[in-house]
Amino acid sequence: MPKRVQVIGAHSADFVWRAGGAVAKAVSLGGQAEVIALSYGERGESGELWKQPGQRVENVKKIRHAEAEAAAAHLGASFTCLDLGDYPLQIDGDRLLEIAEAIRAFAPDVLITHTATDPFNPDHPIAHGAVDRARSLAAGAGVTSAFDTIKPPQLFLFEPHQPELCSFTPTVHVDITSVWEQKLAAMGEMKAQQYLQTYYAQRGEHRGNHARRASGRSEVKYGESFMRVLPQVVGEL
Amino acid sequence: MPKRVQVIGAHSADFVWRAGGAVAKAVSLGGQAEVIALSYGERGESGELWKQPGQRVENVKKIRHAEAEAAAAHLGASFTCLDLGDYPLQIDGDRLLEIAEAIRAFAPDVLITHTATDPFNPDHPIAHGAVDRARSLAAGAGVTSAFDTIKPPQLFLFEPHQPELCSFTPTVHVDITSVWEQKLAAMGEMKAQQYLQTYYAQRGEHRGNHARRASGRSEVKYGESFMRVLPQVVGEL
Amino acid sequence: MPKRVQVIGAHSADFVWRAGGAVAKAVSLGGQAEVIALSYGERGESGELWKQPGQRVENVKKIRHAEAEAAAAHLGASFTCLDLGDYPLQIDGDRLLEIAEAIRAFAPDVLITHTATDPFNPDHPIAHGAVDRARSLAAGAGVTSAFDTIKPPQLFLFEPHQPELCSFTPTVHVDITSVWEQKLAAMGEMKAQQYLQTYYAQRGEHRGNHARRASGRSEVKYGESFMRVLPQVVGEL
Amino acid sequence: MPKRVQVIGAHSADFVWRAGGAVAKAVSLGGQAEVIALSYGERGESGELWKQPGQRVENVKKIRHAEAEAAAAHLGASFTCLDLGDYPLQIDGDRLLEIAEAIRAFAPDVLITHTATDPFNPDHPIAHGAVDRARSLAAGAGVTSAFDTIKPPQLFLFEPHQPELCSFTPTVHVDITSVWEQKLAAMGEMKAQQYLQTYYAQRGEHRGNHARRASGRSEVKYGESFMRVLPQVVGEL
Amino acid sequence: MPKRVQVIGAHSADFVWRAGGAVAKAVSLGGQAEVIALSYGERGESGELWKQPGQRVENVKKIRHAEAEAAAAHLGASFTCLDLGDYPLQIDGDRLLEIAEAIRAFAPDVLITHTATDPFNPDHPIAHGAVDRARSLAAGAGVTSAFDTIKPPQLFLFEPHQPELCSFTPTVHVDITSVWEQKLAAMGEMKAQQYLQTYYAQRGEHRGNHARRASGRSEVKYGESFMRVLPQVVGEL
Amino acid sequence: MPKRVQVIGAHSADFVWRAGGAVAKAVSLGGQAEVIALSYGERGESGELWKQPGQRVENVKKIRHAEAEAAAAHLGASFTCLDLGDYPLQIDGDRLLEIAEAIRAFAPDVLITHTATDPFNPDHPIAHGAVDRARSLAAGAGVTSAFDTIKPPQLFLFEPHQPELCSFTPTVHVDITSVWEQKLAAMGEMKAQQYLQTYYAQRGEHRGNHARRASGRSEVKYGESFMRVLPQVVGEL
After folding, report:
1. In this structure, are residues F21 and F180 in contact, taking their beta carbons and an 8 Å threshold?
2. Chain C residues inside the 8 Å CB shell of E88
């Protein structure tokens, strides 16, 4: 059964490093994927662009949009940015409803976002809180309500850069061996971030090793790790 | 792909209430199931039998064996008891190796046991510790070793009687709707434990409700809940 | 010593299922009880009413008010609704002070609200945060202050629908055997919510069992469970 | 209702500092109290005595016995030592049954012991584990069993010397104002431990302050703090 | 290497009790220290002043400013108050940027604030959240950004009044023996708070004892304890 | 001040991957280092050697000894093995005292061992428990005792292979840039474990990145991460 996968990140590049493989895999299996960025990360994470003399914020956003769109295309996903601003990202009641509406509109089977804690980033926990709450608003209380609701999406947190400091415990490793080249290509679009390209390429190998160790399946070469928030419902163990 | 399911409990009746549905479901899908009891619970949980004048421990064990075997038969599983004694269950180095050998011999895909904490039972945490360690001994260190190893089984903890006091957080709900009658029949073999029959029948409904709420799948009527210990490895989220 | 009990819930029906017994018990012992709802739950939890053609929000609120008032009457409590809106419930600085004022005005011995986490409801954690903070504002810093303060109320969290997913660990079981019929009657007023009536009736039996198990007191038939937030002060253990 | 209070500590002086007030208070209210030490602490905590030339272990134990007995007498409690050895305290299966038997024989309403963690003491966690398990053995599984059982005692952990490093969160403050002089006298018997006398006298004041702050009851001058392990069962909140 | 130490507290007196020693010690070693109060605590903690007939809020603030400034002077630190109001302290987006700017301007090596939890104070957790987030805004994402960033300050939480209820685990004890008289003098400026003067003087002795016990260094007489939030980077263990 | 560093691991190769850099760094600063292995890992981790026809356990141990000794030599440390057996490692009372004696004899400033949890290894948690307890036995209760005691060593846990599954949170990053070549050489002695050589070489880079991010010190190229168990005692923050 092909799945609908929605990734909502604080900044426009977050999805590539942390969920690019899972997105491409779902698409390769016939699914559909949508990436939503709450901001372009234009202030906090675009320093290379600001080194250019006379740089302007609209131009930075334009470049960041193009990069993210190209990366999403490698993975088979669409890309949208709500452009809420970063450093700090601030989300009031109306913005929260806007995010809930985006979830309701796409009606994902799988919804992916940041961890609730990240001592190295002021925007990631804000994004987590909003997406978590927006998900409940879109799915409703499990009874009929005054508004349209969607089937409750499964919620996953993607891997942060320093997992142990973000209370991230991997509970699912996705085998992304068959889409590895696509993830590499998507990461390659983030031209200014060479270190992260190397880091997440190594991370893919490590998570592959972890997946082999947990499953005994020797064919897994590359993995991507996630933390599931809610119980899953299965036909058998 | 049919699965091999192994349940290891401290006392001979533990598996019925807490994993009977998951066992029957796996068997109904073509799998194989084995139940191992570390003891008969002959001292701590067989009070009704001891009310008979002149009762002797060997007779109690015999009755408990028959009940457990009949219950397992309803679920399609075999039943074995290591007869290590209860209240207190004590497991030394040799006993630990015996349990590891039982895991190695059956080579389960899915291994199920108690939670690590249970303030209302002195034997359950001991059983947990031994099974957890025996599993590592049977699966090895993930590299070739001096002894035969098996593919690492997925480890699940079944639902204790007072979940919140045992640090039990359900992470998987199994849909046991199609085998519900079998679980009722298996529980019915535990003739002296009427309260638990009622309680776990209600629990099956509650967990069915929780499963519907988490998944939006309205066809789930009865559920059984488990806590997964190690990351799962999947093809997609 | 008769006690003053105040329950503050996000939606108008929350108090019935989760604290109805404790409220009735306190009143039966000569105490006084007040229920405050932050909203009517008119959007998220009133779906049955919205099925009526031409339904309007004011009418939904009116019906929900009548139901909650009738249920509170069975328990011997008054009912007030602050009508702050639901899905999402939003509480700004002025609203926070309004809640603090309600606590100061009633001066409860016992204050009861939601858990801090609830992955299935976007409003419950918001209610928790506001009540917790409002309680501190009403009780002050433990020294004389610029405003009137009350004796610090004991703070309890009531049982959420899926306790283990809300970090709910019961630390107090209340024996509600003598007021069981009243709780059933109060729940009966929530006519559209048959499932919850059945669920919480069973839950009352289970918690009674847990209370017997923890105390050895065989006369406890029905219980209601709570999580105490702050240390209690006693004359002896 | 007068209560039976049993304190089981790893070493013969532990009960004085940490539960002396609660013991004296229970006795002052008509209860009965028994102190059991698993060892005399003759190796790890009796250094002053070993400074005497020619000191012998039997003499150290004799002196420690006399001190503990005198302290217990100030509080109105009996004192027994199982003399299992310290540094390290080791408890095998037979010793475990001996402790269970001691609990069964006294049939306490209230049972008090160490925290499960103590990075500054190798014997305290061992004592905790044994007492916790022995309690379950004495109280049984909540159903009739092959052996005599007692009404399940309430289990409390007393305050360790460095609470935050021992995961100790106070959940009950006992008002020991009326027996304060008795606790001072009992502590005074531990002649070599002047620092602890001062420390726990100050601690009594602090916990009194905490108790006033939590309850608003200004008459509490001295307190002693405990962590309750299992839910309590009450008539009302 | 002399250090720059910045303490940001919710109310104007918080820094004295909890970080006065660490501030004085840093200054005594050649460092520089700045204290910032988010409010004067004029409503919640200034009750003694409000007992004067005709008291006015501006006068309360003036007195609190003078006390805090005098205390800071004993420690060798400057004192500033952002005067955001207390009970409740409320911090919106603009205020957050103001705090970030204060951190950026001082560029501390060491930044000290409240714990994230404090059930006895509604303003302390708000202060924690703002300082934690402002620190990230000032230090940036670890890459070049659109705004000036500072070297990431080490973040410490100071000791709350009831540590175990605030999830405070000490991870660093500072030896404040050499500046003990200065801390006593600073505390002495808080004339209305005699209890806290006594309490924190005793606390200084206790933490000195804990520091001796952890390190074996007998020369430590007085200590102050902190909880480090982020990993430290060292040349060797 | 040169330091004495002692590493105690379950198997003879554990120290290389996880603490090799910290050992070499301490030695390079004038310190002394001792590595103790509780077993050779001859059964669980020596599979490559067992592939040789006619292989015998004594020969496996001999080869493992030579490798570990050579690796330790690159780091400037001595190597000893207590040879207690692996898979399973079992430690009774006498073995515990043997480990305590080894700690007492070396009197380390810094003691390093495994995490308390490791779902992928049955021996690591056993090693942790024994070393933690042996440390307390060697350091004593903080008062004079019947036996010789040493200054309490600082206790650190080294990084396990899957940190998030072992509750490992790095609290200290050691800058090992200046001894990086030595760590590479030591790892190179473990000829059969090519994967781990690559993995821990990458890990050294990642931890270097984390250390730069936490400290802002750009000169750190390679790091090794540890979790400190007990509070540190410092002259200033």
Report:
1. yes
2. 93, 96-97, 133, 137
Chain A partners within 8 Å of F163 (Cβ): 163-164
Measured distance CA(D43)–CA(D122) in Å, rounded: 12
In chain E, residues with a C-beta closer than 8 Å to the C-beta of A47 are 143-146
Q: Which chains contact D through at least 3 pairs of Cβ atoms less than 8 Å apart?
A: B, C, E, F
Give the predicted TM-score (pTM) of the model.
0.96
ipTM of the prediction: 0.93
Q: Please, are residues D140 and D107 in contact by the beta-carbon 8 Å criterion?
A: no
Record: contact A43-E144, CB cut-off 8 A: no
Minimum CA–CA partner of B57 in chain D: D146
Name the residue of chain C whose CA is nearest to B168's CA: C164
Tokens 């190594």 locate to A202
pLDDT tens, B179-195? 999 999 999 999 878 88
- As a whole number of angstroms, the distance between CA E13 and CA E40 comes to 8
Asked if chain D contacts chain A via 3 or more Cβ pairs within 8 Å, the reply is no
If you count them, how many residues does chain D have? Answer: 237
Residues of D whose CB is below 8 A from C3? 236-237
Q: What share of chain B is helix, strand, coil (3-state, %, to 5)?
A: 45, 15, 40
CA distance A196 to chain B (A): 23
Partners of D164 in the β-ladder: none
Residues contacting residue F10 through CB under 8 Å, at least 6 positions apart: F37, F38, F39, F41, F86, F89, F114, F121, F123, F124, F126, F127
Q: How many CB atoms lie within 10 A of CB D128?
A: 21
**N-term to C-term CA, chain F:** 19
List of residues 6+ apart from B58 with CB closer than 8 A: none
Instruction: Give the residue on C whose Cα is nearest the Cα of E48.
Output: C144
Closest Cα to residue E217, out of D162, D165, F151, F137?
Answer: F151
Tell which residue, A166, A137, A131, A189, has the closest CA to residue A9.
A131
CATH code for residues E4-228: 3.40.50.10320
**Chains touching C by CB (3 or more pairs below 8 Å):** A, B, D, E
Please tell me which of the candidates C22, C29, C173 has its beta carbon nearest to residue D233.
C173
The pairing of strands D223-228 and D172-175 is antiparallel
Q: Please state, in angstroms and rounded to a whole number, the distance separating the CA atoms of residues F102 and E22.
A: 37
The string of DSSP codes covering A136-192 is: HHHHTTSS--SS---PPPEEEEEPPSSGGGGT----EEEE-GGGHHHHHHHHHT-TT
E169 chain-D contacts, CB cut-off 8 A: 164-165
The full DSSP string for D72-103 is: HHHHTEEEEE----SSS----HHHHHHHHHHH
Instruction: Determine the average pLDDT of the residues in F23-48.
Output: 96
> Could you report the per-residue pLDDT of E14-51, keeping only the tens digit for each?
999 999 999 999 999 999 999 999 999 999 988 889 98
Angstrom distance (rounded) from CA C152 to CA D217: 10
Is F29 within 8 Å of E211 when comparing Cβ atoms?
no
Q: Return the bridge partners of D155, or none.
A: D111
Residue of D93, D140, D229 with shortest CB distance to B88: D93
Token digits of residue E183 = 């801390």
Chain F: closest CA distance from residue D130 (Å): 16
d(Cα C211, Cα C199) in Å, to the nearest integer?
A: 18
Which residues of B are less than 8 Å from A25 in CB distance?
235-236
Comparing CA positions, the residue from D75, D67, D18, D14 lying closest to residue D204 is D18
Determine the residue type at A228. Answer: R
3-state secondary structure of E65: helix
Each residue of E107-155: pLDDT tens digit? Answer: 999 999 999 999 999 999 999 999 999 999 999 877 778 888 999 999 9
> Do B182 and B24 touch, CB atoms closer than 8 A?
yes
C-alpha–C-alpha distance, residues C197 and C203, integer Å: 10
Q: Which residue has the tokens 């933690």?
A: F132
Query: How far apart (Å, rounded) are the C-alpha atoms in residues C93 and E85?
Result: 12
Cβ–Cβ below 8 Å for C206 and B210: no
